[in-house]
Design brief:
GO terms for molecular function: L-aspartate:2-oxoglutarate aminotransferase activity; pyridoxal phosphate binding. Helix content is 47%, strand content 12%. The protein is built from 15 helices and 11 strands. The structure holds 4'-deoxy-4'-aminopyridoxal-5'-phosphate. The site of 4'-deoxy-4'-aminopyridoxal-5'-phosphate has 12 residues, from helix 4.
Length: 380
Amino acid sequence: MGKQYLDLSIAPADTAFGLMAEFDADPHPSKAKERLRETTHEYLGIAGSPTFINLAKDIVFGSVASRLQDNSTSIQPVSGTGANHLAATFLACHLRPSHVFIPAPTWINHKSIWEMAGVSVAEYSYYSSVTKEVDIVGMLNALDCAEPNDVVILQACAHNPTGVDLSKYQWMQVADLDRRKKLFVVFDSAYQGFATGDVDGDAWAVRQFTEDVLAFETHPGLCVAQSFSKNFGLYSERVGALHLIVPRHLSVQGARGELMAIVRAEYSNPPRFGASIVETILLDQDLRAQWEADLDTMSSRIRRMRCELRQRLEKETQQDWAYVETQIGMFSYTGLTCEQVSRLRNEFHVYLLPSGRLSLCGLNDGNVKYVAYAIGEVMK
Ligand code: PMP
């Protein structure tokens, strides 16, 4: 049969949560105190809050969301990490890829999550330390070796840890290859709004790839693992969503049932509180406008810090640090060695990851001068 999704039949509803879902859907007038119930600590259903899920879907897919009614399913998992994990567990079982391709470098958890799901992990070159840009040739060459139904992890924007994103043209090159080779893309979207300050602009690639899935009958499908940790500052509340666009030959309800079976066995249902904060903000016009303005403030501040750090580093080291300014999002891949990073920590109390990744969010007008000075000292 070759490698294909297993046929997915519709699983019966979970006994306890199925009953709760039926209760929720029951319109009988004696069912009172509905509003009060919403403010308590009742369990959410296995798939999470339907209101939150629809809002999350709109945020990531924008106007494309209305065309995903019949061929997609969304779940509220345990934040972005949980969304990546749920995707990996589901796809390992039902898509059975021979490999998952992750960027080199990438968020450290990608490798662990997929290894734990039992899928062989292969890396594609993502970043060139020489040009300090995306290694698009290396990336396309590596993905060209993938087999149909292999999974490719793409970070939607503000790539962690390099701070370097693909250009629109490069995204289209990857989309072409993805379509030609029938690869299943999992978009990891953890920083929407952080790259440019524009929620829609940061979702450009996801929406473009989604259009492709809708246009081509033989497309294997696509997932988006969405996190609200950064763009709502809800880190500890574990707010996220997993959206699965199901290939045409498969039953959406069957896929949804499988996802819910995994959730039920792993953690039963997701946390309510953070999701209700997101709902409150996105459903209120003024709060939503304020959230969008806050994202703009945050991303502008990061850009200002990049400019300031670049200028100060160029003064301290007499070298070109233009890439600190052109990189995107929270992180900068400084190119500092592991030894320089440990000197920064031990002698100057400045903390970077051993890879040389610096978090721009930790910089402010009060410390940027000192950080540039410290970097200059360890580079002498
Ligand atoms: N993906 C990427 C690329 C990340 O950087 C992070 C957080 N560091 C996540 C996913 C997961 O975030 P969370 O589980 O906090 O939503």
